[in-house]
């Protein structure tokens, strides 16, 4: 094959831009997936203000309990949610640092793929070294609230 023929055979690689648009109202939430500004998926869910397992929230640490090695986090439920140190997950400190950077400068959002990894020992440690009162953290509900208790949380976010 000549050099000219090889140049004609070159494969064109196209980059696809994907956007996730979430529009939340008092009575419903609309979630749209766009690829190159074209609608690919649309989901509309009625809101009933219930806390379901798997829901992800930006919570604020309200209390640190060193004796339990845990914290209570406000995620919008009447009772504060419970987060144990061993439920933070290996990526917790990296997520916490990234959220702090995003909240500090919302006009210059760095992609999460370029976020710096912060090592974290999830098995040995103290909640007081990982969290402070007032910290904003991303958490996921692992157990729904029952009776007088709020929801149980994890810092290890996963999507089905």
List the helices and strands and how they pair.
Layout: H1 3-8, E1 18-24, E2 28-35, E3 38-46, E4 56-65, E5 70-74, E6 81-84, H2 92-104, H3 127-130, E7 136-143, E8 152-154
Antiparallel strand pairs: 1-2, 2-3, 4-5, 4-7, 5-6, 7-8
Can you walk me through this structure?
- There is one protein chain.
- This protein is an alpha+beta fold and 160 residues long.
- It has two domains: 3-46, no CATH class; 56-154, OB fold (Dihydrolipoamide Acetyltransferase, E2P) (Beta Barrel).
- It is 14% helix and 34% strand.
- It is built from three helices and eight strands.
- The chain has a five-stranded antiparallel sheet with strand order 6-5-4-7-8. The protein has a three-stranded antiparallel sheet with strand order 1-2-3, with no helix packed on it.
- Strand 5 (70-74) and strand 6 form a beta hairpin.
- The protein is globular, with a radius of gyration of 21 Å.
- The termini are far apart.
- The mean pLDDT is 83.
Task: Offer a quick outline of the entry.
The chain has 160 residues and is an alpha+beta fold.
Distance between the termini: 48 Å
**CATH classification, class level of the largest domain:** Mainly Beta
Along the chain, the helix and strand elements come as HEEEEEEHHEE
The average pLDDT is 83
User: Ranges with pLDDT <50 over ≥5 residues?
Assistant: none
By helix and strand content, what is the structural category?
alpha+beta
Portion of residues in beta strands equals: 25-35%
Say how many strands there are.
Answer: 8
Strand order of the biggest β-sheet: 6-5-4-7-8
CATH topology-level name of the largest domain: OB fold (Dihydrolipoamide Acetyltransferase, E2P)
Contiguous helical run count: 3
Task: Tell me, briefly, the overall form.
Answer: globular
- Helical residues, percent: 10-25%
Total count of domains: 2
